[in-house]
Design goal:
The structure holds two protein chains of two kinds. Chain A has helices at residues 16-25, 68-78, 88-95, 152-160, 176-179, 219-236, and strands at 4-9, 29-34, 45-48, 82-86, 102-104, 112-120, 136-143, 147-149, 164-169, 188-192, 198-201. Chain A is an alpha/beta fold. The chains are: A alpha/beta, B mainly alpha.
Chain lengths: 237, 50
């Protein structure tokens, strides 16, 4: 069973090829989808990659959410399909209402491009099932608008229902506040939807997919997706 | 510190009220994000819009 994972390219996407490569490294079939084409090409999962779709005009992700492909992504997610948003992809999912919250400028008002550390908070998602709970991942960020924010009631609901999937921390996992690069509420680096089939995170796992890049920690996210899809396929045989 | 943006739109409409409604709808659906932004819509006088 070879899972087929689609990676959407918007005008201004940067990391689509890296995401395609990460999937192929793990034996998945990676297919590219152009944002103007609503056909998801029979994909078993969809990735919205990082970059600066539509030049980040108006707000990050605000224009991309109206791309023709997004109607298909919304339908796919509603039917239980697995959708991962990375950085700009996370911003697009928030703008589309598939994930809660919104992105503000980083608290330091600067673009930040460096490795950070995040802790896997939950492993009962198809994006983290190959990770250990509490595992610290070294993964790069590259954004100006990663200061994730939401109203207090939603934040409480997310924490209560274990929908915070990744949290910034220090390399040893001892101080989350000190590891937060952008001011995101509760040091949140990634969240999922209520059904747990849609997740977004600001760090770039596809840029941490082999040791030559400084870390291969990001692979665990793609491995989780591939294994979840293979498991699901076997279960239906 | 408050950060905001001003967006100037020229719309074709049957009346000033309809124009304002049209712009308000655009603002809700697209131009603003209610999680982090609030908005006000105001029609400019012909003098102001020059």
């Amino acid at each position: 069973v070879t899972p087929r994972i689609a990676v959407v390219t918007f005008p201004g996407s940067l990391d689509d090829r890296d995401a395609l490569r990460a999937i192929r490294l793990l034996g998945g079939e990676a297919v590219s989808v152009w944002h103007a084409d609503p056909d998801l090409r029979g994909a078993d999962a969809v990735i919205l990659p990082g970059g600066f779709s539509y030049g980040d005009y108006l707000r990050t992700g605000a224009i991309a959410r109206f791309s023709p492909v997004m109607k298909s992504v919304e339908k796919f997610a509603a039917s239980g399909g697995m959708v991962l948003g990375i950085c700009n992809g996370f911003q697009i999912l928030c703008e589309a209402g598939l994930l809660p919250g919104a992105m503000m400028r980083n608290s330091g008002l600067r673009f930040i491009c460096r490795h950070v550390h995040i802790r896997v908070e939950q492993t009962d998602t198809p994006f983290t099932n190959a990770a250990r709970k509490g595992q610290i991942l070294k993964i790069p960020i590259a954004h100006s608008d990663g200061n994730w924010t939401v109203d207090e009631a939603t934040l409480a609901e997310l924490e209560r229902n274990r929908r915070v999937i990744f949290r910034y921390t220090t390399p040893d996992g001892s101080n989350d506040d000190a590891g937060n690069p952008n001011g995101a509420m509760h040091n949140i680096a990634g969240v999922c939807n209520r059904e747990r089939n849609v997740t977004g995170l600001m760090p770039h796992p596809e840029r941490a997919a082999e040791l030559a890049l400084g870390s291969a920690d990001g692979l665990v996210i793609f491995r989780s997706m591939v294994e979840a899809l293979v498991g699901a396929a076997k279960a239906t045989v | 510190v408050r950060v905001g943006k001003s967006i100037f739109l020229t719309v074709e409409s049957d009346s000033p009220a309809a124009a304002e409604e049209q712009v308000a709808e655009m603002t809700v659906k697209f131009l603003s994000n209610p999680v982090i932004e609030r908005f006000w819509v105001r029609q400019l006088t012909s003098e102001e819009s020059r």
